[in-house]
Write a structure and sequence with these properties.
By secondary structure, the chain is mainly β. The protein has helices at 2-14, 41-45; strands at 74-82, 88-97, 103-112, 119-121, 128-130, 137-148, 153-169, 178-193, 201-209, 213-215, 218-220, 225-233, 244-254, 260-269, 273-281, 286-298, 301-312, 318-326. The strands form three sheets. A 14-stranded antiparallel barrel has the order 1-2-3-6-7-8-9-12-13-14-15-16-17-18. The protein has a two-stranded antiparallel sheet with strand order 4-5.
């Protein structure tokens, strides 16, 4: 237990924000922002504090080490996010349990940027005229692997192919059009450690590690994010119990912003009904979120439906739905 306390103290020390970090916010330094969006209703409802919580197919979007805890033969997940400004995201994943060989998963996320009107310079009174609608979108496909090295320590990794198409543009009259497309590989890695104190666990996750992407002349990085966190069912302090109260905290170090904290909680009644809430600290527009989940087993088939609602300060609030089935 002393080692756990020492490690937590180290985490707090590393993520203590200096004064200047409140002034210097590293915005506008990364692209392919869709890779940062919460895609699962359970994770979003818990304020994105999920790297030590995910133990199903949704873990591939937060900490791939979590898929090692999939006990079913197959676990399948789909989710939809109605994002701000008419943007929507569809995501899904499937994990196959290979026993002692570890677990393998495949994930995807696809963005729909909605209808974008094209324009071009003209001699009209307005100075421009409309063209056909532009086609823009993005997607990522990932392949994950995770394995429990011991009964306490689990590792996982993911390689994913990311693509974004922002349609074409013409820099000057009479010039050829330029296709604004980028694509490449990115990598995720994570660990989960159970020190042996009840259900307490802690670990880390690195997401979106990649080489530089480039549109035309200007290069940019993906939203690389380093996270450490811990989670525990606090009802363990009261001995045997049929319900659970999971508490999770993640410290977030993103490439394109100052340090952030995600805090989440989930109360699960009889392993059937879940009530969730979370809060994101040091965000410009996001903060509180909440949601519910319903679970039921049909023989050896488990099903779960989740919903989350996230408050945004200046935009429309965000709704998410997800469905999971394991067999």
């Amino acid at each position: 237990m002393k080692k756990v306390i020492l490690l937590l103290a180290l985490i707090v020390a590393v993520y203590s924000m200096p004064v200047y970090s409140q002034i210097m916010k590293k915005v506008g330094q990364t692209g392919l922002q869709f890779l940062k969006v919460d895609v699962g209703a359970r994770a979003a409802a818990m304020g994105g504090s999920y790297i030590m919580v995910g133990n199903d197919a949704t873990a591939m979007f937060y900490n791939p080490a979590g898929i090692a805890f999939v006990k079913n033969n197959v676990d399948f997940f789909v989710g939809r996010t109605n994002w701000i400004a008419g943007i929507s995201y569809n995501a899904g994943g499937i994990v196959k349990n290979f026993g002692g060989w570890g677990n393998i998963g495949i994930s995807f996320i696809a963005s729909d940027y909605g209808e974008i009107f094209g324009t071009r310079v003209s001699k009209s009174e307005l100075g421009f005229e409309e063209t056909e609608n532009l086609k823009a979108g993005a997607y990522a496909i990932g392949l994950s692997y995770a394995k429990a090295l011991t009964n306490k320590f689990t590792v996982g990794g993911q390689i994913k192919y990311a693509n974004q198409n922002l349609s074409e543009s013409i820099l000057s009259a009479g010039a050829a059009s330029i296709q604004n497309k980028v694509s490449g590989l990115a990598y995720d890695f994570g660990t989960i450690f159970y020190p042996g104190f009840k259900s307490f666990r802690l670990g880390m996750s690195i997401r979106n590690f990649s080489s530089e992407f480039k549109y035309q002349k200007e290069g940019f990085q993906l939203p690389l994010t380093f996270m450490v966190g811990f989670a525990m069912d606090v009802l363990d302090f009261w001995g045997e119990h049929t319900n659970s109260l999971l508490v999770s905290v993640d410290a977030v170090h993103p490439r394109d912003y100052t340090e952030r904290i995600h805090v989440g909680g989930e109360y699960c009644l009889m392993n059937m009904f879940a009530l969730r809430a979370g809060y994101k600290f040091n965000y410009d527009v996001e903060n509180f979120s909440g949601g519910i989940g319903f679970k039921h087993n049909f023989g050896k088939i488990k099903c779960e439906i989740g919903y989350s609602y996230s408050l945004f300060k200046v935009f429309d609030d965000v709704n998410r739905m997800s469905f999971e089935i394991g067999f």
